Amino acid sequence: MKKMIVAKSAGFCFGVQRAVDTVYEQCGKDNIYTYGPIIHNEEVVKDLENKGVKIVEDTKALIKDDKKDKTVVIRSHGVAKDIYEELKNNNINVVDATCPFVLKIHRIVEQESRDGSQIVIIGNEKHPEVEGIMGWSKTPVIVIDTVEKAQNLALDVEKKVCIVSQTTFNYNKFKELVEIIEKKGYNVVIRNTICNATEERQTEAREIARQADAVIVIGGSSSSNTRKLYEICKNECEKTYYIQTINDLDLSGLAMAECIGITAGASTPNNIIEEVCTNVREFCRDVRGIN
């Protein structure tokens, strides 16, 4: 009999659920925007657009728009401090759906940089969450995400160094990079700002992948946390598939797998996860049965 293991942590995390709920509460009102996609999931973004929610990628076009009573929902990833100020100065209503764990990093970076610390962010410098965090520092910020960058890091030995992390960064990789920086002899303050939900999701994904013959990871193509889940699972199980919806999965690839694992990123809706699980279960019954 085939076995299917579905991650208990799969699907919306607290911050994403809060952000999505916030936007849906605004639906039906005139002139509702989100600053960037509210989450990195194409299906959710498409549904919101169908309900009249528009996406803006910068403040300039929005400010030039002569519509009255404009409301902008700040996405779960957060934004830089100057964006809040620009929206406020132009009388645009702001509804802040930034994840509380991300807001915590903003406060840390703002305070530590004000106190003279050099800020190092461990994460992807092109990810909107990291771009937002950088915008709260009073001093220049260094972003690293590889061993090579950590090894080449050169800072002022006379100043304190504050290290924070993108909330969805790989925890084991974070520890590895921190150890490299610590060996350089800087006066380092380490703030592990990877959220608990991310750590739990990554740990569970690793455990499932070690048991499985095939793993399905579900999430948006631009989702950073889903990409990391895929990398973790792929490292443990060669037959790991990254899909956005059931339409992306070639079920025939699961025919020989006795144990199939399924997990999903923090921005993957439950209905998509359920659809994948249902289709995989039905396929496995047709092949040889499933527990």
Quick overview:
This protein is 42% helix and 18% strand. It has 291 residues and is an alpha/beta fold.
**Gross morphology:** flat
End-to-end Cα distance:
6 Å
Number of strands: 12
Give, in order, the helices and strands.
EHEHEHEHEHEHEHEHEHEHEEH
Beta fraction: 15-25%
What gyration radius follows from the Cα positions, in whole Å? Answer: 21 Å
Order of strands side by side in the largest beta sheet?
A: 1-12-10-11
Key words describing this protein structure:
single chain; 291 residues; alpha/beta; four-stranded parallel beta sheet; 42% helix; 18% strand; flat
What does this structure look like?
- The chain has 291 residues and is an alpha/beta fold.
- The protein has helices at residues 14-26, 42-50, 59-64, 81-89, 100-114, 128-134, 147-151, 171-182, 196-211, 224-236, 270-287; strands at residues 3-6, 32-35, 54-56, 71-74, 93-96, 118-122, 141-144, 161-165, 188-190, 214-218, 240-243, 259-264.
- The strands form 3 sheets. A 4-stranded parallel beta sheet has the order 1-12-10-11, with helices on both faces.
- The relative contact order is 0.16.
